[in-house]
């Protein structure tokens, strides 16, 4: 067993190739069932047979849409990210009145996203099983953090052009800001520790994080 596929199948891409409404609906049905199983049983513990049962489809139908467990998990993860990151991506593409306004909102939305039960569950799966299944890290980075960092770096570059920030390496600064967003509330929630994650607490934390970042990269006028 390679740790990538199970049930005697191999492959790494969505094998559906189906664009008709019925096929799309069936695919969504499968992804919903797969998500339930992955979050309950983890990646290693999830079997294609159990996923087919949970999705209410035959095993043959499951393999008509997905080549194996690895591409099914990637498709499920990508779908979750696409839906949940869309507001954050839209924020980083649209220039608000000031960089601070955007960064506060970005931090606030990021914390709300990453403390959600779905995000916490996926994070624990990947961190807990990445040694056995290295491709999980690639999935997590490609569809999650890597995508977010790219959008944030582009926004920071535009902020530098406007003279709002003074950043020599926007890509590194994007990583720095995203890590700053994950201290206190997110870290504690990931470990199941008590923490105030109310809307008010997150708003206060987001403002503090954005202000701290702005202080580091504020333009040094001659």
TrEMBL record:
The keyword Transcription applies. Keywords: DNA-binding, Transcription, Transcription regulation. Transmembrane segments: none annotated. SUPFAM superfamilies: Homeodomain-like, Tetracyclin repressor-like, C-terminal domain. Residues 1-24 are annotated as: Disordered. Signal peptide: none annotated. Gene3D superfamilies: Homeodomain-like, Tetracycline Repressor, domain 2. The keyword Transcription regulation applies. InterPro entries: DNA-bd_HTH_TetR-type_CS, Homeodomain-like_sf, HTH-type_TetR-like_transc_reg, HTH_TetR, Tet_transcr_reg_TetR-rel_C_sf, TetR_C_Proteobacteria. Residues 24-84 form the HTH tetR-type domain. Residues 47-66 bind DNA. This is HTH tetR-type domain-containing protein. It comes from Gluconobacter kanchanaburiensis NBRC 103587.
């Amino acid at each position: 067993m390679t740790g990538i596929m199970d049930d005697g199948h191999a492959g790494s891409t969505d094998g559906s190739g189906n664009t008709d409404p019925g096929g799309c609906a069936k695919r969504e049905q499968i992804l919903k069932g797969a998500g339930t199983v992955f979050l309950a049983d983890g990646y290693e513990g999830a079997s294609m047979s159990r996923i087919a049962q949970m999705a209410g489809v035959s095993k043959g139908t499951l393999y008509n849409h997905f080549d194996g467990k690895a591409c099914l998990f990637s498709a499920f993860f990508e779908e979750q990210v696409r839906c949940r990151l869309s507001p954050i991506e839209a924020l980083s593409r649209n220039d608000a009145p000031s960089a601070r306004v955007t960064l506060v909102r970005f931090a606030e939305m990021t914390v709300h996203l990453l403390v959600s039960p779905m995000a916490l569950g996926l994070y624990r799966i990947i961190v807990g099983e990445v040694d056995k299944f290295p491709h999980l890290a690639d999935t997590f980075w490609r569809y999650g953090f890597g995508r977010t960092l790219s959008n944030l770096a582009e926004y920071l570059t535009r902020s530098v052009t406007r003279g709002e920030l003074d950043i020599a390496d926007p890509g590194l600064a994007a990583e720095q800001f995203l890590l700053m967003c994950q201290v206190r509330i997110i870290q504690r929630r990931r470990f199941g520790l008590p923490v105030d994650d109310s809307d008010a607490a997150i708003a206060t934390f987001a403002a503090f994080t954005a202000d701290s970042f702005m202080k580091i990269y504020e333009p040094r006028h001659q």
